[in-house]
Design a protein that fits this description.
The complex is a heterodimer of chains A (575) and B (183). With 575 residues, chain A is of the alpha/beta class. Chain A contains 23 helices and 19 strands. In chain B, the strands form two sheets. In chain B, strands 1, 2, 3, 4 and 5 form a five-stranded antiparallel β-sheet that branches. The chains are: A alpha/beta (575), B alpha+beta (183).
C-alpha cells in the first residue's frame, strides 16, 4: 500500500503493537507528527523536555515489560535523548528512540539542527540505524524492536532523515527480521544446569544474589520456586528490588554500598553465590578483591560477556533466566528426591540473627522530620495495598527508599541504578502510570533531582497521568553533601539548595497539581494520606533534617565488611 | 591458549590476532573500533577489506590482551549486531601476511649492501632516489620485524605497515569451536 515514509513509521509502530509513544515534535520530524495528527492507534504523550520523554519511555518499559518508545527531532531534540539512552544502556531497559534527521542531501554540511546522533550514541546503544532509503523503514523498525528486547534488553536508535519521511513507499511489514549476526541464546547448557544444581544442593551457606536481569527476564515466579525448593536466602540488588516479595521469610535485604549490615554479611560470608541476572557491580562488591572471598560462584545470565567480566564463575550458565532457573529447580528437586535435602536452616537462622543484631538505625528527633521516618510512614500507609508502583530519583532518598519500602510484586520499584541519573524519578513515574493506569504511582524524589525534570508535572496533569511525588527535601544535594562530610572534612562545596527556593507546594499548584508542605510529624500521616487518595497529581514537600547521613555505608574502595555504621550520635545541625 | 608475549619497556604485552567477519554495512567498522576503545582493548593493528561475499567484510585485528582476556573481548564483540563471526587466528593454525614500505637512506657506497639484504627477504625495490630507496616487503609479520631491525642502522626515513591479515590454513582441519562454552 502506497504511503509516505512517515506513515510507514507509524504503521510499523502499530504493527509492533506499540500503545504509547513519548516525545516532542520539531522541524526534522514534522512529517511523522503529521502522520500522528492524521490518525493512528498509537497514543502520543507530549513531554516538556526530550529527556523527560526518554525517561518516560524507560519508566513505561520497566513497569510493563514492553518496549518503551521515545520520539524527538534532530539536533538538540536528539541530543536531549542521550541521557535516557545512556541510562537505558546501563540498566538494560528496552527502548526504541526515533529521531528526525536533516535531509539526506544536507547530512554532513552542518545544517540547521543537524547532529550525528548515530555517531554520538554508538557507545550507549545496542545498535542504531540511519535510514537511507524509504524502503528500509519497515525492516529497520522491525529489527529495532527485535534487538531492543531480545538477548540482554537495551536501547536502540532509528534516525530518519526528513526527505525519507516524505518519500513514497509501498508499505508491507515484513514477517521476519533480517539480522544474520544476531543470535541470542535460547536455553542454558544442560551440563551446566546439572552442575549448578549440584553446587546448590551441596552448599551450606548459599545466597541467591538477584539483580535486575530477573525482572527483565520475567523470571520472578521461577526465582520464587527455586528459592523455596532450595530454602535459599534471597538478596536483591537495587535493580533487582521487587523481583522477590520482600515480606517473604527468605528475603534478606539488599547488598552493597548502602545495604544493611546483615545483607552484606550474608553476601560476603557465603560459601556459594548464585548470581541471577546480576553483574558484580562495584556498588555491590566494594573492593572486588575482598568481595565474598570464601564463595564459589554460579553465574546465571543471558549475557555471556558479564560472566567472568569482574568475578570468575565456577559454574557459568548462559541463557534466558526463565528457562535456566526453571531447569535448575527441576534438577534440584531430583537431587532432593535422591536424598539431598537443603542444609540451609542454620545459615538462615544466622542471617536472621545478624538482622536482629544490626538493624537499620537513625536518630529519632522531635524537632525535625527525619527522612527515614518519612519512608517508614509511607511504607506503613501502603503496606496492605496491591497497587503501588514506586519510582525514585538518585541520591540519599533513593537509598532510604531501597531500605524502607517493601515491594511484593515485580516491576514495582523503578529506579536509575547503573547511570544514576538525577531527575529520573518524575518522568519515569509518568511513564509507569501510562503503563499501569490502575496503579498508584509514587515518586520518592530528592529536591535536587526534582528540580532537574519537574517540568514533566505539566505532562502528568495535562495528559491525565496522575502521580504523587513525595519530596525528601533536605535543602541539599544530599549524597554529595554526605561524601563531603565524610571524606572532605565536612567542607561543603556547592551543595546548598535551600529548603524553600522554590516553594515546592506553590510550584506544584502552578503546574495544576496539589501541593502540600510538611515539616513535622504531626501532619505527616494525614498529608500523605490526602495526597495518596486525592486522585490527582500531587507534590508533598517533606522538609527533613538537612544533615542526615545515609548508613550503613561502604566507602569507595573499601572492603564490603569494612562498612561505616550509624553510631548513635545526634546528627541534627541547624541550617 | 598460547600467548605471544614480548617485553616492551618493562610492561609485558600479550598479543592475539582476531579475524572478524562483519556485515558490509555503513558503520560496522567504527562500531567495532569504538567498542575496543570504550572497553580499553588496545589495538596494535587493524586491516579491513572485502571477502568472497559482497555483503561481508573481514576485519583482522591484532589486540593486546594483557589487561582483559581474549575471551572477554570475543564475547563483547558478539554483542555487536553487525558482527557475524569471531575467530582467533593462532599462529600455528594460520597463514599470516603483511606488507610494509620502508624509505631507507642509501648513500651510493651502501646501496649494494642494502640490495643484498633486500634479496634475503625477497624485498622489492619499489622506488629509487638519489640518496634513498623505497623497499617493499611482503611476508610473515616477524619477517617484516627482522627486516626493519636490520635496516634500521642505515636510517629509516619513513615506513608504513598495513597490519597483518590472515586466514586459517587449508592444510589443517579446523575444529569448530562452539560459541559460549566456557571453562
Amino acid at each position: 500500500m502506497k504511503m509516505t515514509g512517515a506513515d510507514a513509521v507509524l504503521r510499523s509502530l502499530e504493527a509492533e503493537g506499540v500503545e504509547v509513544a513519548f516525545g516532542i515534535p520539531g522541524g526534522a520530524i514534522l512529517p511523522t507528527y503529521d502522520a500522528f495528527a492524521r490518525g493512528t492507534t498509537v497514543r502520543h504523550v507530549l513531554a516538556r523536555h526530550e529527556q523527560g520523554a526518554g525517561h518516560m519511555a524507560e519508566g513505561y518499559a520497566r513497569a510493563s515489560g514492553r518496549v518503551g518508545v521515545a520520539i524527538a527531532t534532530s539536533g538538540p531534540g536528539a541530543t536531549n535523548l542521550v541521557t535516557p539512552i545512556a541510562d537505558a544502556w546501563m540498566d538494560s531497559t528496552p527502548i526504541v528512540c526515533i529521531t528526525g534527521q536533516v535531509r539526506t542531501t544536507l547530512i554532513g554540511t552542518d545544517a540547521f539542527q543537524e547532529c550525528d546522533i548515530v555517531g554520538v550514541t554508538i557507545p550507549v546503544v545496542k545498535h542504531s540505524w540511519l535510514v537511507q532509503d524509504v524502503r528500509e523503514i519497515p525492516g529497520v523498525i522491525k529489527a529495532a524492536f527485535h534487538v531492543a528486547q531480545t538477548g540482554r534488553c537495551g536501547p536502540v536508535l532509528v534516525d530518519v532523515p526528513r526527505d525519507i519521511q516524505e518519500a513514497e513507499i509501498d508499505f508491507r511489514y515484513p514477517d521476519e527480521v533480517d539480522l544474520p549476526g544476531w543470535r541470542p541464546p535460547t536455553r542454558g547448557h544442560p551440563r551446566q544446569i546439572t552442575e549448578a544444581a549440584k553446587r546448590i544442593a551441596a552448599a551450606e551457606k548459599p545466597v541467591l544474589y538477584v539483580g535486575g536481569g530477573v525482572l527483565n527476564a520475567e523470571a520472578c515466579p521461577e526465582l520464587l520456586d527455586l528459592a523455596q525448593v532450595g530454602r535459599l536466602p534471597v538478596i536483591t540488588t537495587l535493580m533487582g528490588k521487587s523481583a522477590f516479595p520482600e515480606t517473604h521469610e527468605l528475603h534478606f535485604g539488599w547488598p552493597g554500598m548502602h545495604g544493611p549490615k546483615w545483607s552484606n554479611y550474608a553476601m560476603n560470608k557465603a560459601d556459594l553465590l548464585i548470581a541471577c541476572g546480576a553483574r558484580f557491580d562495584d556498588r555491590v562488591t566494594g573492593k572486588l578483591s575482598a568481595f565474598a572471598p570464601g564463595a564459589s560462584v554460579v553465574h546465571l545470565d543471558i549475557d555471556a560477556a558479564e560472566i567472568g567480566k569482574l568475578r570468575s564463575a565456577d559454574v557459568p550458565v548462559v541463557g534466558p533466566l526463565r528457562h535456566v532457573l526453571g531447569d535448575i529447580a527441576i534438577e534440584l528437586r531430583r537431587l532432593q528426591a535422591d536424598g539431598r535435602p537443603p542444609q540451609t536452616d542454620a545459615w538462615l537462622r544466622q542471617i536472621a540473627e545478624w538482622r536482629d543484631e544490626f538493624p537499620l538505625r537513625y536518630a529519632e528527633n522531635d524537632h525535625v522530620l527525619k527522612p527515614q521516618h518519612v519512608l517508614e510512614v509511607l511504607q506503613e500507609l501502603t503496606a496492605d495495598r496491591d497497587d503501588m508502583v514506586w519510582t525514585t530519583g538518585v541520591g540519599q532518598h533513593q537509598m532510604w527508599a531501597m531500605q524502607y519500602l517493601r515491594c511484593r510484586r515485580p516491576r514495582t520499584f523503578i529506579t536509575s541504578g547503573g547511570l544514576g541519573t538525577m531527575g529520573y524519578g518524575v518522568p519515569a513515574a509518568v511513564g509507569a502510570k501510562a503503563a499501569r493506569p490502575d496503579a498508584t504511582v509514587v515518586c520518592v524524589d530528592g529536591d535536587g533531582c526534582f528540580q532537574m525534570t519537574c517540568q514533566e508535572l505539566a505532562t502528568a496533569v495535562l495528559e491525565d497521568l496522575p502521580i504523587v511525588v513525595v519530596l525528601i527535601n533536605n535543602g541539599y544535594l544530599g549524597m554529595v553533601q554526605q561524601w563531603q562530610n565524610m571524606f572532605f572534612d565536612d567542607r561543603l562545596s556547592q551543595v546548598h539548595l535551600t529548603h524553600q527556593v522554590p516553594d515546592y507546594a506553590q510550584l506544584a499548584e502552578a503546574y495544576g497539581a496539589a501541593g502540600f508542605t510538611v515539616d513535622s510529624d504531626d501532619d505527616l500521616v494525614s498529608t500523605l494520606e490526602a495526597a495518596l487518595g486525592g486522585g490527582r497529581t500531587a507534590v508533598v514537600d517533606c522538609r527533613v533534617d538537612p544533615r542526615e547521613q545515609c548508613f550503613p555505608m561502604i566507602p569507595a574502595g573499601a572492603a564490603a565488611l569494612d562498612m561505616l555504621e550509624y553510631t548513635g550520635e545526634e546528627a541534627v545541625r541547624a541550617e | 591458549m598460547l600467548c605471544n608475549t614480548r617485553a616492551w619497556g618493562g610492561a609485558s604485552v600479550s598479543l592475539h590476532t582476531i579475524s572478524v567477519l562483519v556485515e558490509n554495512k555503513p558503520g560496522a567498522l567504527v562500531r567495532v573500533a569504538m567498542m575496543f576503545a570504550r572497553r580499553g582493548y588496545n589495538i596494535e593493528s587493524l586491516a579491513v577489506g572485502p571477502t568472497e561475499r559482497h555483503d561481508v567484510s573481514r576485519i583482522t585485528i591484532r589486540v593486546d590482551c594483557a589487561t582483559r582476556s581474549l575471551e572477554q573481548i570475543e564475547k563483547q564483540m558478539h554483542k555487536l549486531v553487525n558482527v557475524l563471526r569471531v575467530r582467533e587466528l593462532e599462529s600455528e593454525e594460520a597463514v599470516e601476511r603483511e606488507l610494509a614500505l620502508f624509505t631507507v637512506a642509501t648513500p651510493p657506497e651502501r646501496r649494494a649492501e642494502l640490495m643484498t639484504l633486500a634479496d634475503a627477504f625477497h624485498a622489492r625495490v619499489a622506488d629509487v632516489g638519489p640518496d634513498a630507496l623505497v623497499f617493499e616487503v611482503v611476508g610473515e609479520p616477524h619477517e617484516l620485524d627482522s627486516f626493519e631491525e636490520l635496516v634500521r642502522p642505515h636510517g629509516i626515513r619513513e615506513m608504513v605497515r598495513t597490519g597483518r591479515v590472515g586466514l586459517h590454513r587449508a592444510s589443517t582441519r579446523r575444529e569448530r569451536r562452539p560459541q559460549h562454552v566456557l571453562r
